[in-house]
Amino acid sequence: MRTLLYCLVLALLPGLSGAFDTPQIESFVRDIVDRHGLDRQWVQEIIAEAELKQSILDAISRPAEKTRPWHEYRLLFINERRINDGVAFWQEHRDILERVADECGIPVGIIVAILGIETHYGTRAGSYRVIDSLSTLAFGYPPRSDFFRGELEQFLLLSREHSIDPLEAVGSYAGAMGAAQFISSSYRKYAVDGSGDGRVDLWQDWRDVIASVANYLHAFGWQRDGPVADVLAIDAETAVSFMSEKLELRHKVADLRRFNVELTGDRDDDLPILLFELENKSGPEYWVGYNNFYVITRYNRSRMYAMAVRELGQAITARVSTQ
To answer: What gap in Å lies between CA 72 and CA 67, rounded to an integer?
Structure first.
């Protein structure tokens, strides 16, 4: 009888019912209701209201654009507007930024830079309903359907735990939410109540946003006062022997010193490192990333992203220090 009623609900409502096979939706609902004790009718009604968005499928399926070299990529983020807006953001939220930085050991510049790159300080946080994004990708995008079904499950749990209206919450086409662009599983695991009001709001409460970004980095092992990255004077052949496609701290500083490679500053031999190449206008440049560089890549698994966070953070910090 419950299955029949669910089919009737789906048949009467627009959205996913007309776009996907009912059995896979039924299976999803049954599984998460049994696993988490959710109210079946509540889940059914939310899923039935989700709408298939072809624009979401287009966004995730379109061929990747030409890979930008570093000297082009950095200009997207290391520019006067983003630096100035970052300075203004720092000044507006100085108290919470500096308190969180002191508590977690995460530099203010790094926190501000991540928010600047992710959503331009909250002004570009996405306009898709999260329920549409996750449902479309969970049931209509086979290459990553398992991942997005997991995130849809997490989103429903998140909605219940934090009193979020699942039909009103908006984010990116992939379901990332708020100024910090947390996916549902990260929201549940790493977002914190920075304001102490009993709720965690990554859309409008900057105290929660700032504290959550810092907590995310802290959870992945950010080291207070630790280095992020240094440029290297190293020949290409030696550099290539250290590099890997995987983002892993596979070597140590001592390994470089065996090749008489000098590093900036006094770096301990036991520091774990990874080497990577950046393409500048004048040619390739080789860098060494330390633990904190690796931690930034946990936010976005890209070497260029991590370098953009480092450089934007440095630029904003330098500008603030002169005011």
So the answer is: 10
Which helix (H) or strand (E) covers residue 283, if one does? strand 283-289
Nearest one of 196, 173, 200 to 186, comparing CA atoms: 200
* DSSP letters spanning 214-280: HHHHHHTT--TT---EEEE---HHHHHHH--SS----EEHHHHHTTT---SS---TT-EEEEEEEEE
Residues 95 and 211: beta-carbon distance below 8 Å: no
Q: What is the pLDDT of residues 37-89, one digit of tens each?
A: 999 999 999 999 999 999 999 999 876 555 789 999 999 999 999 999 999 99
Q: Which residues are catalytic?
A: 118
Residue with tokens 């059995």: 23
pTM of this structure: 0.91
Are residues 226 and 296 in contact, defined by beta-carbon separation less than 8 angstroms?
Answer: no
Q: Taking the alpha carbons of 68, 69, 73, 75 in that order, is the dihedral positive or negative?
A: negative
Instruction: Please list, in sequence order, all residues whose beta carbon lies within 8 angstroms of the beta carbon of residue 221, skipping any fewer than 6 positions away.
Output: 291, 295
Domain segments of the chain: what residues? Answer: 1-49, 229-289
Alpha-carbon distance 2 to 5, whole Å? 5
Quick one: pLDDT band at residue 10, thresholds 50, 70, 90? Answer: very low
